[in-house]
Amino acid sequence: MNICIVSPSFGHGGANIIASKIGKELSKTHNVFYYGFKTEANYMDLPEDKLFFYKKKHNSYIQKIRKGFETLYNSGEFTPSKYVKAEIAYLYELIAKEKIDFVILNTFVSTTYFARALKLVFPELPVIAWMHEAVDYSFNVLAKKYLTSFVEAIKVTDGIVCLTERDYQKFIQYNQNVKIIYNPVLFNNKEIASLDVEKVSFVSRLDINVKGLDILVDVANDLNTKWPIVIAANHRDNQLELFQELLKKNTKNNIEYVGPKKGNSLIEHYLDSSIFLSTSRVEALPLVLIEAMSCGLPIVSFDHSGANEILREGKYGVLVSNLDSKKMVEELEKLMSDKVLREKYQQLSLKRAEDFKLEKILPKWLMLIEETTSVVK
């Protein structure tokens, strides 16, 4: 079967990396193509002959004006597909040329842009929406200015893959074929953390609001221990400059930024710590939590839908409610002062990490493709 995975990019970012990895695994039994329509990147070394990019650039200033006028005269919303007609046409050509049998639209952006257009021109082509974003964040923030288009898109797809039970309960209201398939952990580390290193690891991108980096600074300033919080993170645009400005508020100087990490250096980053911390305000299914758990790290995280799903309401790690930085400090200091407690949570982390191994996830994708194809065709 010829499968096409459509994504804004195949570069940095959890959703892009996961899509690349699943595509590589599917290519062992299927012929998989990749279409990146926003940026040219190949973080996971996808085969160049199967990787396609839309390379022309839009005049962002003109597009912004057009969207502004449409929003003004259309009850505060615009229609994203109007502004990506060339990208849609490129995908049509790719589908026809490569005789694509199945399309996976990776992220809410791909779904909103392409789902309705594909089903209009190729009504018998199975199209799946793969939603990596937390559902509340998708509906209330990300798609707020084109909610009508977003809802229409998820309605016309032949199925939706989401990451949590909370996401499922929302999407099932619009589409009767919704499946929860976890994102897999991508590396197979042979070691686990010794839990003797007096460091807290933190892995993220430098998005201050979403990743709660402002709260992280508050937490760091309130800690009464010498344990540093060591951050590995990538960034884009002016995020690094904004983060460096924020770090000036870290009065205890106990936050260390070590830049982006990948592969073995990322594994070493996890292993060179004894607790993993997440201060994100919202996440769908944060890959970094799963990676940290597979390295045997105890987890302390705010109680958003993604962490709740992974940690099973606190069964497999520490959840802190209501973005309470004081409570987070309290939970961190408990773990810092008690290695036996860290060892308890290490075993819980390792047990839960088993559920996110690729060998458990891939069969669910293969079954979904087979079932959806048989129904649509």
Automatic annotation (TrEMBL):
GO terms for MF: glycosyltransferase activity
Keyword terms, alphabetized: Transferase
Coiled-coil positions: none
Domain Glycosyl transferase family, first and last residues per copy: 196-347
Transmembrane segments: none
InterPro entries: Glyco_trans_1
Keyword Cytoplasm: no
A single BP term in Gene Ontology: lipopolysaccharide biosynthetic process
A Pfam family matched in the record: Glycos_transf_1
Gene3D superfamilies: Glycogen Phosphorylase B (3.40.50.2000)
Protein name: Glycosyltransferase
